[in-house]
Backbone:
């Protein structure tokens, strides 16, 4: 169901294939979706919607001719079925239809399996014709090594084996803070360099209420919207909305009106 | 005389506890020879696409690795699980054989019934006592 980018229809640029997420607003941010066979990192605080975003991506593919796999290192498959059901998504039915498979494993086993000839995961990819995978979550790789260089190499190999299998990958990673800027990754590992795109989800406090913000910080090989947008999770899933207007310091977690910033910067000096 | 009564009682008990689908009885006698195996089979039925090491499966199942190791190996020998060597790791997964998966599903479904569980428990304990 890979789609052509809109911009290519009006220019002589080469055709750019896209893998739409099916998430309202996000595909517009990504100019049509992710690039095929890329690794796309979604990072954010616990509970801010990383897994929901990933499940929505997998479900959209499953319903549109691109079967998918959820590779979980932590939650039991049952949890995904339950979480999906809360949005009215029947993951069991998709599994029965052979367009979705939830695999539970560990980073070390998945990596070794993918690197072996005719491993179980690759066999499964071939059997169901999988095109998408959600790896939930990359955070678990961090226990494989304390050495950031070694860890980076391990993850690099893992991502390449997924791409080699023809999969477009969403990787989730938990950030350690709930609000505001993350000073440095907890383990010293920075996986954003390894990913082809890097999307950050954040909680922000605006007028005494917690809201959610999303930004695409990087998208290798493609232009993308660089606005910080608000998003909500309702009964049908994740919806990306308009950019935050007239505010700055959004990613600090406590944005302020731009006018206040101007006053601080230029008047209260 | 007393021996005769004991034998009669045992025969009666066996008859009562053997009163189940022969296919299920055979499945229990062949595969469910301990309560840990029962737990593990239930786990693999619920999570049929688990591919992992003894240590991780033990963690998922809430058991000690030492306890689970032998049981997993026996389930692999009896054909319900597959084991493979991956570098230094031994990996276990549910057999992809549809016939075996169907038998497991039948067992798990039957286990929802209390009377079946009582009968199955009798056979598991009997098998454990014999070992």
Residues:
């Amino acid at each position: 169901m890979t789609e052509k980018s809109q911009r290519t229809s009006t220019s002589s640029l080469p055709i750019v294939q896209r893998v739409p997420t099916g998430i309202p607003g996000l595909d517009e941010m990504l100019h049509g979706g992710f690039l095929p066979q890329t690794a796309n990192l979604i990072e954010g605080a616990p509970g801010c919607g990383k897994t929901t975003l990933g499940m929505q991506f997998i479900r959209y593919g499953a319903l549109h001719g691109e079967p998918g796999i959820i590779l979980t290192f932590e939650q039991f498959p049952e949890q995904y079925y339950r979480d999906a059901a809360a949005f009215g998504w029947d993951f069991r039915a998709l599994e029965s239809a052979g367009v979705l498979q939830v695999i539970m494993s560990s980073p070390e086993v998945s990596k070794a399996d993918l690197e072996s000839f005719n491993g179980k995961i690759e066999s499964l990819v071939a059997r169901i014709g999988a095109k998408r995978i959600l790896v939930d979550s990359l955070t678990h790789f961090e226990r494989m090594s304390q050495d950031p260089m070694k860890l980076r190499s391990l993850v690099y190999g893992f991502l390449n084996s997924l791409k080699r299998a023809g999969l477009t990958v969403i990787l989730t990673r938990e950030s350690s803070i709930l609000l505001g800027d993350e000073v440095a990754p907890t383990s010293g590992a920075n996986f954003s360099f390894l990913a082809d795109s890097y999307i950050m989800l954040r909680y922000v406090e605006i007028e005494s209420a917690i809201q959610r913000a999303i930004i695409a910080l990087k998208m290798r090989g493609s232009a993308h919207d660089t606005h910080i947008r608000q998003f909500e999770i309702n009964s049908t899933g994740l919806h990306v909305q308009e950019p935050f207007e007239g505010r700055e310091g959004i990613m600090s977690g406590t944005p302020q009106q731009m006018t206040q910033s101007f006053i601080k910067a230029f008047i209260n000096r | 005389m007393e021996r005769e009564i004991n034998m009669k009682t045992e025969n009666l008990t066996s008859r009562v506890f053997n009163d189940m689908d022969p296919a299920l009885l055979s499945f229990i006698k062949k595969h469910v020879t301990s309560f840990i195996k029962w737990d593990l089979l239930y786990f693999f039925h619920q999570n049929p696409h688990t591919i992992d090491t003894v240590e991780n499966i033990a963690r998922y199942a809430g058991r000690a690795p030492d306890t689970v190791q032998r049981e997993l190996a026996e389930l692999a020998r009896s054909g319900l699980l597959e084991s493979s060597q991956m570098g230094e790791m031994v990996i276990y997964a549910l057999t992809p054989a549809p016939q075996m998966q169907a038998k497991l599903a039948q067992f798990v479904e039957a286990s929802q019934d209390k009377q079946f569980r009582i009968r199955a428990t009798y056979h598991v304990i009997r098998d454990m006592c014999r070992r």
